[in-house]
Amino acid sequence: MCLSLGLVGISFCGADVGGFFKTPSPELLVRWYQTGAYQPFFRAHAHLDTPRREPWLFGPENTALIRDAVRQRYTLLPYWYLQFYHAHHTGEPVMRPLWVEYPQDPATFALDDEFLIGRDLLVHPVTEEGARGVTAYLPGKDEVWFDVNTFQKHNGAQNLYIPVTMSSIPVFQRGGSIIARKLRVRRSSSCMDHDPYTLHVALNPQRTAEGELYIDDGHTFNYEKKEFIHRRLSFVNNILSSVDLAPDAHFTTLSWIERVIILGASKPSKVTLKTADGQESQIEFEFDASMSVLTLRKPGMNLGAAWTVALQ
């Protein structure tokens, strides 16, 4: 239903977590929260006469699993906000069937148990009670997908069997994309306003990636007065850069970039940050050779300014 509604312009869609009627088992309630956390509209809601089903009523283990799903949702709020910005301007669905992005791949046409958020996140929720594994189709010949939890790389155009536990929410980031997250745990989204960003740069086989970041005050219509930040992020030739997509817009934020995680990377000898005023500084980094993951620590880039980060 949500996939269909998105296609006709109603992107703000999500199921009543737990179902409006009847009573799911604790296991299926957890799975419903895990699924709902990756739908555009995320709300627990039920008929007045249904038994109470707040997350804390089913034991500490299930409460912890639900809390983790909610936290995953909150870390992705910058990406959700960007998708709604695009939906507002273009009508593109936030939650979309795979064939929207892969219309030449017949294997995507009938899939309705997995979906994309924007172009770059693929979600295959676990919805069967007692499930020990799911099979997800990863589209795109000559593309790669990265498990967002383990950072393991998988080739596209294959059916991938994924063993699951109760904590598993199979989600993959497309190689060739850059997704901004906020990783600090807070009590509400308003408490996250000034928190720093972490960029997840997932390289494609050509070792490039691109993405966007959109920021406004999150409350008013002042974006209509050009009060926002909209930047393109790109990684090409071992250089990560930020370009202003709305040079006539102006907005100030206290947030900054505190971490960059590059998936599918090679180990550099040094990493250099160059700001718009020509100043250069070295960035600390860690490299996990077993997973080809490069982590840049505390680069401190300004979200509203131009900069480059060169891997040498």
From TrEMBL:
Coiled-coil segments: none
Record's signal peptide: 1-15
Domain Glycoside hydrolase family 31 TIM barrel, chain residue ranges per copy: 1-81
Alphabetic keyword roster: Glycosidase, Hydrolase, Signal
Gene Ontology molecular-function annotations: glucan 1,3-alpha-glucosidase activity
Entry annotated with the keyword Iron: no
Domain annotation Glycosyl hydrolase family 31 C-terminal: ranges: 91-179
GO biological process, one term: carbohydrate metabolic process
Xref: InterPro entries: GH (IPR017853), Glyco_hydro_31_C (IPR048395), Glyco_hydro_31_TIM (IPR000322), Glyco_hydro_b (IPR013780)
GO cellular component, one term: glucosidase II complex
Family label: Belongs to the glycosyl hydrolase 31 family.
Name this polypeptide is given: Glucosidase II alpha subunit
